[in-house]
C-alpha cells in the first residue's frame, strides 16, 4: 500500500529530503509531492551576489535541477503552489488553491525569512532583499536601469556575509557603495580584532562603512522610490538599497499548525529532524532548529550546507534508514575583494556565553612560503579551552588561499582535537602552498606552547 | 655546572633542536654548538626548484636564518665543519679538522642522502643533484651557460615530487624536458589511476615522459660531460641531467659510531627522538627513523615538516620538557603546471601491505561552485577500512585550489575519523571556494553511503 510524502518547500532541504527518500523507496511504495510557492526549486541563493556582480552569467546557472529533472526521478514538484496550512490531525496540507493534500509523512522545509526590522519605508520600491532568484533578477534590472538613469549609489544594510558579498557585487557593477550597520563592525560572528581587518579592507576598496548606526527610516522620494536611509547619526543618499540583515527561520506555517518551535524561533526537531510530538512530521533546513556541536546547545544557522544535510537525514529516516544530523559548528566563509574571511566553532562571545574558560591566540603568517610569489598575509585566531587545550573555535582572515584553511580547523574541532593534537598533525607543505609550518599549525603551536607554561 | 649540547647538521632538524633547547635552557646552563659541513644553515631545500625555475630570485631568499642570527640567540654555529666520527664512550665528536669536541647531549641531524644508483657516468659533469643550495646554484649556472652555449635539452631522472618540480623548473627556463623513470608512473605514492592523471598533465605540458625504464648508463661526451642517458629501451640526448630519485637517510656517521639503525636504514629512535641505548643521544630529521600514524609501523619519510617537528621534540626533551613525536601520515603536496597533486596516509599498496581490508572510492568534483569562474576539476580518492569506514588514506589531484584540501583529509585521518564522521562535518561553503558539498565531503559520503549498503 503506497504512502505519500509531502514536502513543503523546494530548495536545498526539501529537495534533498525528497531525493534521498526516493533513493531508498521506489515510486510504487512512496509517492513524493513537493509544494513550492515560487517558480524555482533547488537553486543557489548563495550564488545571487555573484550573478548580480557579473561573475555568473545566467539565472539558469544557479539552478541545480529543474522540476522536470525531479519528475524524471519520480518526484512530483508543483511550483507556484503555496501551502497555506497544515492540519496535523487530518494529516493534510491545505494549498492556497483550496486543495487538501493528504500525507503520510510530511517534511517542512519552508526555509528562512530575511530579517526585516520594522522601520518605515522598508517596503518602498528600490529596496531589495537577497533571498530568492527573483530578488537577484530585480537587482540586476535595477542596476541595468534605463539608459541615462542607472543607479549610481548603492547602499547595503548589514555587514554579514550577504551584506559583504552584495557590497562587492554592487561595486563590481560600478556603483559607489555605502554599507550601514547597527553593529560596531562587520561580520559579527568574528571577534572584533578580526572584524576590524574586514572593515579596513572594505574601506581600502573604496567602500564607505558606517558602523554602530541602526537605520531608523528608509527615505522615500516623491515617486515612492527609496532614495536613502536615515540613522541616528545621519542620512545617506542612495539610488538602490539592498538588505543583508541576516536570515531567521520561516516557521509560521509550522507554528500555526501547532508544531513546537524552539527558543531560536525555529521548528524544534530531534536529531533525526523529527518533530517530537508528531513523528510523522520532519523539519529541515533554515526553518528548523539544530544544535551546536561544541556546546550541545540549540542553535539556528541558516546555511545551504546544513539544509542539504538535514534534508538528507529526514529523507533517510522516511526511507527507512536510521540517520542523525551531527550538529553545526557555524563554519562560514566569504570574501570581500581579495580578503578571505572564515570562521568556525565558537567566537569569544559564544565561548563566554557557553561557560567555557577559554583563551585566544592569534598569529600572523603567510599563505605560501614567504619567498614564493603570491605569498599573502593571513591571520589565524584560535579559541581553545584553558587547561585542556580543546579547540573551540577559529577565525581566519587573509589574502587568496587563506579562507579554505578554516576547513582544517573545522575538522579538528569536529573531531574534538586539542591544539597540541593539531600542532603535531601532518599537514601538507610545499612552497607554492604554505610555509613549512602551515599558519593553522603555527597557531596551534602557540596555544600548545603557552599552555605548557 | 654548564652542559654542552652538540648538534651535528644545521638544517631543519638540527636548528629546530638547537632553538628549542635554547628557549628552555639559558646559555649559562647549556652551551649549544652546531656543526655544519656546508656554508648554509636553516635553508629551504624544498625551494630549490623554484629558485631554478625563476619564481624565487635570490639564494638568500631560501635561507630562513643565518649563523649570525643564531649566534645572537646564543647558539654557536660552526659552518664548514664536518663531523667525522662520534665517540659514544668518550662523549666526543671528532671533526675533520682533528678537534675532539665533548658533549653532554648530542643531536644527530645529518639529514638525507639523495638516492644515487650505481650506474656508470653518474658522477660526470652536467649531472646534478637537488639537495643543497650549491646544487641549485650549479643548475642555475648551467642553464645560464655561456652565450651561445646554453643547454637546450633537460633530462630529469625520477618522477617523485622533486622530479616533477625540477621538470617544471627546467621547462620554465626554456629547456625541452624529458623525464625518465623506472616506475610505471610518476608519483609512486599515488595509486595508478591518480598517477595517470599526473602523467597526462606532464605530457600535455609538452614534456616527454618515458616510464618503466631504469637508466643503465649516463652517456658522457669526449669532454667528460653528460650528454644523455641509456635505458633498456633507448638512449635520450640531454645537455643537462637532474637527479630526482628520492632521498634516503644519511646515517653513516651514526652507524659508524655504533648507534642502532632501524629496518629503514635510518637511525632508530624512540618517540622522544632518543637513541634507545644511548639516552644522551638524539636523532631527528631525514636521518632518523619514525613511525606511521595509521599503521604504527616504522617509516622513513624525508620531509622538512617532520624534520622541524622532530628537532623540536629532541630540543624539548634536552630542555627538560617531555615531548613525543606523534608520527607521520606521509602527507605530500606538489604541483606540475596547474595540476595540484596531493596525498596523505596509506595508498592502496600500503593499505594492502599493512594488512587492512580496505575499499577505495573516487569522485570527480570541482574546486568552486560549478557556475563560478575558475571552477576546476578535482578528483578525490579515499582509501578506507572496510566495515568500520575508518579513513586510511586519501589522494587529491586537480586544478588550482585542489591540493590544499588534502589537509582536511590528513586532519580527519589524524583524528581517526570515519568517512561517515567526515561526511557529516561542517566544512565551509561559498561559491568562490567550493560547491555546496566540498569534494572531500562528496567522497566521504560516497564511502559512507555504500558502506551502509
From TrEMBL, chains A, B:
Name of this protein:
Flavoprotein oxidoreductase
Q: Which PANTHER family match?
A: NAD(P)H SULFUR OXIDOREDUCTASE (COA-DEPENDENT) (PTHR43429:SF1), PYRIDINE NUCLEOTIDE-DISULFIDE OXIDOREDUCTASE DOMAIN-CONTAINING (PTHR43429)
Pfam families the UniProt entry points to: Pyr_redox_2, Pyr_redox_dim
Q: Which GO terms describe its molecular function?
A: oxidoreductase activity
Top-level division of the source organism's lineage:
Bacteria
Residue stretches making up the FAD/NAD(P)-binding domain: 4-302
Instruction: Give the UniProt keywords, A-Z.
Output: FAD, Flavoprotein, Oxidoreductase, Redox-active center
Q: Which family does it belong to?
A: Belongs to the class-III pyridine nucleotide-disulfide oxidoreductase family.
Residue ranges of every copy of the Pyridine nucleotide-disulphide oxidoreductase dimerisation domain listed in the record: 334-435
Which metal ions or organic cofactors does this protein require, according to UniProt?
FAD
Q: Which InterPro entries does the UniProt entry name for this protein?
A: FAD-bd_OxRdtase, FAD/NAD-bd_sf, FAD/NAD-binding_dom, FAD/NAD-linked_Rdtase_dimer_sf, Pyr_nucl-diS_OxRdtase_dimer
Amino acid at each position: 500500500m503506497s504512502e505519500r510524502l509531502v514536502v513543503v518547500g523546494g530548495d536545498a532541504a526539501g529537495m534533498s529530503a525528497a531525493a534521498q527518500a526516493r533513493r531508498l523507496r521506489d515510486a510504487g511504495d512512496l509517492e513524493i509531492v513537493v509544494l513550492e510557492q515560487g517558480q524555482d526549486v533547488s537553486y543557489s541563493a548563495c550564488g545571487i551576489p555573484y550573478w548580480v556582480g557579473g561573475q555568473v552569467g545566467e539565472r539558469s546557472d544557479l539552478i541545480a535541477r529543474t522540476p522536470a529533472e525531479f519528475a524524471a526521478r519520480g518526484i512530483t514538484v508543483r511550483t507556484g503552489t503555496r501551502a497555506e496550512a497544515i492540519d496535523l490531525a487530518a494529516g493534510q496540507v491545505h494549498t492556497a488553491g483550496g486543495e487538501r493534500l493528504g500525507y503520510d509523512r510530511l517534511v517542512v522545509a519552508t526555509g528562512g525569512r530575511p530579517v526585516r526590522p520594522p522601520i518605515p519605508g522598508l517596503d518602498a520600491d528600490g529596496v531589495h532583499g537577497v533571498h530568492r532568484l527573483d530578488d537577484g533578477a530585480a537587482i540586476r534590472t535595477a542596476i541595468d536601469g534605463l539608459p541615462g538613469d542607472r543607479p549610481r549609489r548603492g547602499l547595503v544594510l548589514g555587514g554579514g556575509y550577504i551584506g559583504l558579498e552584495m557590497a562587492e557585487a554592487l561595486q563590481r557593477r560600478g556603483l559607489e557603495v555605502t554599507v550601514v550597520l547597527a553593529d560596531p563592525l562587520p561580520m559579527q560572528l568574528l571577534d572584533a580584532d578580526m572584524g576590524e581587518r574586514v572593515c579596513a579592507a572594505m574601506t581600502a576598496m573604496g567602500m564607505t562603512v558606517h558602523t554602530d548606526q541602526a537605520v531608523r527610516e528608509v527615505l522615500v522620494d516623491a515617486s515612492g522610490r527609496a532614495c536613502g536611509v536615515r540613522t541616528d547619526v545621519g542620512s545617506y543618499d542612495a539610488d538602490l538599497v539592498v538588505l543583508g540583515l541576516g536570515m531567521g527561520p520561516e516557521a509560521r506555517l509550522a507554528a500555526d499548525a501547532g508544531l513546537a518551535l524552539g527558543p531560536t524561533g525555529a521548528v524544534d526537531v530531534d536529531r533525526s529532524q523529527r518533530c517530537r510530538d508528531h513523528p510523522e512530521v520532519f523539519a529541515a533546513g533554515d526553518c528548523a532548529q539544530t544544535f551546536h556541536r561544541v556546546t550541545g546547545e540549540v542553535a539556528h544557522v541558516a546555511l545551504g550546507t546544513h539544509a542539504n544535510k538535514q534534508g538528507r537525514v529526514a529523507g533517510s529516516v522516511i526511507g527507512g534508514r536510521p540517520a542523525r544530523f551531527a550538529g553545526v559548528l557555524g563554519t562560514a566563509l566569504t570574501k570581500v575583494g581579495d580578503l578571505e574571511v572564515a570562521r568556525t566553532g565558537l567566537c569569544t562571545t559564544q565561548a563566554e556565553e557557553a561557560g567555557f574558560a577559554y583563551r585566544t591566540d592569534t598569529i600572523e603568517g603567510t599563505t605560501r612560503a614567504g619567498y614564493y610569489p603570491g605569498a599573502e598575509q593571513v591571520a589565524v585566531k584560535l579559541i581553545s579551552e584553558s587547561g585542556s587545550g580543546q579547540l573551540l573555535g577559529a577565525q581566519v582572515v587573509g589574502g587568496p588561499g587563506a579562507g579554505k584553511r578554516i576547513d582544517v580547523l573545522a575538522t579538528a574541532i569536529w573531531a574534538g582535537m586539542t591544539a597540541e593534537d593539531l600542532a603535531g598533525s601532518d599537514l601538507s607543505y610545499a612552497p607554492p602552498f604554505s610555509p613549512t609550518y602551515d599558519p593553522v599549525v603555527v597557531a596551534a603551536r602557540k596555544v600548545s606552547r603557552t599552555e605548557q607554561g
